[in-house]
Write a structure and sequence with these properties.
Length: about 190
């Protein structure tokens, strides 16, 4: 598994469903200057996946307030994404999800982010936080049956933005509004003191 943290996020151009329509040339680099949270999921019309897509949608206001563009990616076709978006939530669909859903039908994006399960042809549940300069600052990869925490993704956005704004580092379990520390021995002693 490749560690992409500290490296430029692999760029891509692919089909995506955006605002209910298939866009042929959706590019990650178009979001330079904004934070991007890109998450991979295995398949449309499955079980854990719709719970995650709805959970991210539920928190879209908080992501927007933080200038974060959320993007989902799976190896399904854009046509499958569109059909799933037109399926009601109560029957396992993702109707109401508003952020872009990228089709990685040729599996290139999943390979570039090193989350492809080759013999399955689907991606692990990879999540990547990309800063405004296009650098990956956080990544986490879950196995297929393990759903993610959207609250943790938001916490990581808050930590990155706090660090960028104040130059202080965020200790274990830090949450927005809590005490941080200067990255020095004195800073650590003050934090514990």
């Amino acid at each position: 598994m490749a560690v992409l943290v500290g490296k430029p996020a692999p760029d891509f151009t692919a089909e995506a469903v955006v605002a209910g329509k298939v866009e042929k040339h959706f590019r990650l680099s178009d979001f330079r200057g904004r934070y991007v949270l890109i998450f991979f999921y295995p398949f449309d019309f499955t079980f854990v996946c719709p719970t995650e897509l709805h959970a991210f949608q539920h928190h879209m206001k908080e992501f927007r307030e933080r200038n974060v563009q959320v993007i989902a990616v799976s190896t399904d076709s854009a046509f499958s994404h569109a059909a799933w978006l037109n399926t009601p939530k109560k029957t396992g669909g993702i109707q109401g999800v508003e952020y872009p859903i990228v089709s990685d039908f040729n599996k290139r994006i999943s390979r570039d982010y090193d989350v492809l399960v080759e013999d399955l042809g689907a991606a692990y549940r990879g999540l990547f936080l990309i800063d405004k300069e296009g650098i990956v600052r956080h990544q986490v990869v879950n196995d297929l049956p393990l759903g993610r925490s959207v609250e943790e993704a938001l916490r990581m956005v808050d930590a990155l933005q706090f660090y960028e704004q104040h130059g202080e580092v965020c200790p274990a379990n830090w949450k927005k509004g809590e005490k941080a520390m200067k990255p020095t021995a004195d800073g650590l002693q003050n934090y514990f003191g």
